[in-house]
Specification:
Elements (H helix, E strand, L loop, with lengths): L1 H8 L1 H6 L4 H14 L3 E9 L5 E5 L5 E5 L4 E10 L30 E13 L2 E13 L3 E10 L4 E14 L3 E12 L19 H7 L3 E3 L7 E3 L5 E3 L2 H23 L3 E15 L3 E13 L8 H5 L5 E11 L4 E12 L2 E12 L3
Antiparallel strand pairs: 1-4, 2-3, 4-5, 5-6, 6-7, 7-8, 8-9, 9-13, 10-11, 11-12, 13-14, 14-15, 15-16, 16-17
């Protein structure tokens, strides 16, 4: 990892400096690291959901239009991952390509592979930052990988490193076992728990006052609610409870989560990988199970929220079968469950080609 970062920092010198013997060695190292890799950057966009007309008859007929700005994404990345036999070869990469096999524990080839991708996007009016970075080295009897994943849509973000012993059974199947170290925010932490009343409700008005909001009861016929800046945000209990309070709770929860330091998790991992490919039939499957986690006795450890041990797991399946030259079926997907977060993708369908 340090060597890779050093090479990246020295890239301008390597490309434009004098061709001394030492620099020539660095150029050779650089070529070996990035050989067969692809740098890519792209801006993609399109229209979002259509405008929506909203009607009101409170003060006579009033019409307003809710407009959602167009969707877009700005993507920068570099990848060096050998294509599996079932994956098509793109003419250009624009960052929208998606391969379930990127999440596999083991690549098609032994050796060093990597992916660094940042994607800033706006989807249906909401902004997200997605990142997926990993370095992986696969040998005949061991695997090492470091990864950072941030999925804004699924609200998951963590750093993970793993070291595994690999036992091959034939040319297609292998088992692995090892240790995993993860770092993330304390996902089991609930900032609203301390505000729960005996009946299970939340003393939301008192929480809002603690956050700087104010309620003026001086005029019983016109109760006013103001925000921390002193601006009136509601003049009725309905608006206060249905519009303002949800925002207060959301902002408070996000603030309290951001105040906490990252939590560390140390786990045992068991996994498998299977890959078979022919031009008419292929199966690629992998899975990871973390059945045991070290109790660090930390105040915000997931052990405290879960009440003991738990199972974290991830896996994927890519299946394709061509019945004949015209008809074929495919099934692809991956599923992840870490802590109290779940995220998944899948695709299933049929292709019929007319000659």
């Amino acid at each position: 990892m340090k060597k890779l970062l050093l090479i990246l920092c020295m890239l301008p010198t390597l490309m434009f400096g004098q061709d001394t013997k030492e620099e020539g060695k660095w150029k050779d190292d650089l070529k070996r690291v990035f050989k067969f890799s692809t740098f890519y950057g792209a801006v993609n966009g399109g229209n979002s959901i259509s405008d929506v007309d909203v009607f009101s008859v409170t003060n006579g007929l009033e019409t307003s239009t809710i407009k959602t700005p167009f969707d877009y994404s700005i993507i920068l990345g570099v990848r060096k991952i050998a294509r599996f036999g079932y994956e098509p070869k793109e003419r250009f990469k624009n960052g929208t390509e998606f391969s379930f096999s990127d999440a596999a524990t083991i690549g098609k080839i032994s050796g060093f592979e990597f992916l660094f991708e940042v994607d800033y996007k706006r989807q249906q009016g909401e902004n997200y930052l997605d990142q997926n970075h990993f370095l992986r080295y696969v040998a005949d009897n061991w695997i090492a990988k470091v990864e950072y994943l941030e999925d804004g849509f699924a609200d998951i973000k963590y750093f993970e490193a793993s070291q595994r012993y690999r036992h091959k059974i034939g040319d297609k199947f292998s088992l692995n076992v090892g240790a995993v170290q993860r770092m993330s925010e304390p996902y089991g932490y609930d900032p609203l728990e301390e505000w729960l009343l005996a009946n299970g409700n939340i003393h939301y008005t008192y929480l809002a006052i603690q956050e700087g909001y104010n309620v003026d009861f001086s005029n019983p016929d016109l109760i006013t609610y103001t925000n921390p800046g002193g601006s009136i945000v509601a003049t009725s209990t309905d608006v206060w409870e249905q519009i303002i309070i949800p925002e207060v709770l959301s902002d408070y929860t996000e603030k309290k989560r951001n105040e906490l330091s990252q939590a560390f998790e140390y786990s045992i991992v068991l996994g498998f990988d299977y890959y078979h490919y022919t031009s008419s039939f292929w199966v690629h499957s992998w899975g990871n199970l973390m059945p045991y986690h070290v109790d660090t006795k930390d105040e915000f450890s997931y052990h405290n929220y879960n009440g003991g041990q738990w199972l974290d797991y991830s896996g994927g399946l890519i299946f394709g079968y061509k019945l004949n030259k015209n008809l074929g079926f495919f099934l692809e997907g991956k599923y992840n469950k870490y802590w109290n977060r779940k995220w998944h993708d899948f695709s299933v369908g049929v292709n019929y080609i007319i000659f």
